[in-house]
Amino acid sequence: MEPHRPLSITVIAIAQLVISTLSLVAGLILVLIVTGQIQVLTSDVTVFPLPLKALVGLGLAISVLGLTASVGLWQMQRWGWIVSLVFQGLCILNNAVGVVAGQPPSPGVYASVSLSTAMIVALCAPSVQDRFFPVLSK
Questions:
Q1: Contact 12, 115 (CB under 8 A)
Q2: 48-89: per-residue pLDDT in tens?
Q3: What is the DSSP letter of 49?
Q4: pLDDT: is 76 or 4 the higher one?
């Protein structure tokens, strides 16, 4: 029998799923743009520096990790909780690396880091942790 999933974990899992899916779609579109498969801008973006191109690939990998973590959370698996924390940390790190690599800090960067931080706080709430680590709460 599957343990009851509290509303807080359901909300985190759905939010993470939506964010990961949107990030994956955006990443795939960026790959097509950066590789020159589609042209949406008037300038040639295939000449982006290698670190920025690598960030696109890293972002895709992080998105897949987020989708995987969402499934784990939904199924109330302990590994889903752990991978969700890793996913949120990688999202923050990816934004930081992007800024260091030359991406100007934008409202989107601030929003992404804020959302990831809020998700980490929510995942670390005692009521959520108790569902994944009941032995530790006693």
A1: no
A2: 677 677 777 888 888 999 999 999 999 999 999 999 999 999
A3: -
A4: 76
Q: Does any domain span residue 137?
A: no
70 located within any domain: yes
Asked whether residue 138 is domain-assigned, the answer is no
- Residue from 132, 135, 137 nearest 84 by CA: 132
pTM over 0.90: no
- The single-letter code of the amino acid at 31 is V
| 2 within a domain of the structure (yes/no) | no
- For residue 58, give its domain range: 7-132
Amino acid identity at 100: V
Residue 3 and residue 128 in contact, taking contact as beta carbons nearer than 8 Å? no
Q: Which of 56, 87, 58, 57 is nearest to 70 (CA)?
A: 87
Query: What's the token pair of residue 101?
Result: 């690599």
Phi-psi region for residue 4, left (φ > 0), alpha (ψ -120 to 50) or beta? beta
Contact present, 68 and 21 (Cβ < 8 Å): no
Helices 78-100, 7-34: crossing angle, 10 deg rounding: 40
